[in-house]
Amino acid sequence: MKLTGLAWRCVCIIVSSTIVITAAACQPDGTRPGFSLSGQMAPFPEDWGFSNQHREIAIEVSTPYFIPHSITIWCVEVDGQLFVAAATPNQKLWPGWVADDPNIRLRVGGLIYETRLELLTAQASLERVLDAYRVKYELPERSAQEEPMRIWSVMSRE
């Protein structure tokens, strides 16, 4: 069966509309991951205090199969610095992808920030950030048997 010009245009419109709708619907939401984040680009802020207004933000990481992967994540701000963490990081793929490529994108509200993550290792800093998580999200103390969280500081790419 040969398609006429009009039929061919209809097929193209349907396919392109499906792609656009699918891409728009593929933003992370709750526990559902997504692909590339959309929003207005913004410069790296001097102070992340405004992030306290947001219970969740979105993070986009690079994957080994060249398709961006985005998820929603909790964040805390301590002294103007933003931190993100992964509970049970060995049970998730994205923390390993961050180890391979720490350049990420964050969406806070409707704004996108191109950043990089730096693994936090100093014990004193880790405790301050964990305390901030406990307060913001009303979390109980972590038990010694729980897998440790992996915490990153959000840094400028420059």
**Residues in helices, as a percent range:** 25-40%
Helix count, DSSP H or I runs of 4 or more residues: 3
By helix and strand content, what is the structural category?
Answer: alpha+beta
Strand content: 25-35%
What characteristic shape results from the CA principal axes? elongated
Q: Identify the CATH architecture.
A: Roll
Structure keywords:
elongated; 28% strand; alpha+beta; Pnp Oxidase, Chain A; 158 residues
What does the secondary structure layout of this molecule look like, with pairings?
Elements: H1 5-25, E1 40-41, E2 57-61, E3 69-73, E4 75-78, E5 81-86, H2 94-100, E6 103-108, E7 111-119, H3 123-137, E8 150-156
Parallel strand pairs: 1-7
Antiparallel strand pairs: 2-3, 2-6, 4-5, 5-8, 6-7, 7-8
What does this entry show, briefly?
The chain is α+β, with helices and mostly antiparallel strands and 158 residues long. The protein has a single domain, classed as Roll (Pnp Oxidase, Chain A). The chain has helices at residues 5-25, 94-100, 123-137, and strands at 40-41, 57-61, 69-73, 75-78, 81-86, 103-108, 111-119, 150-156.
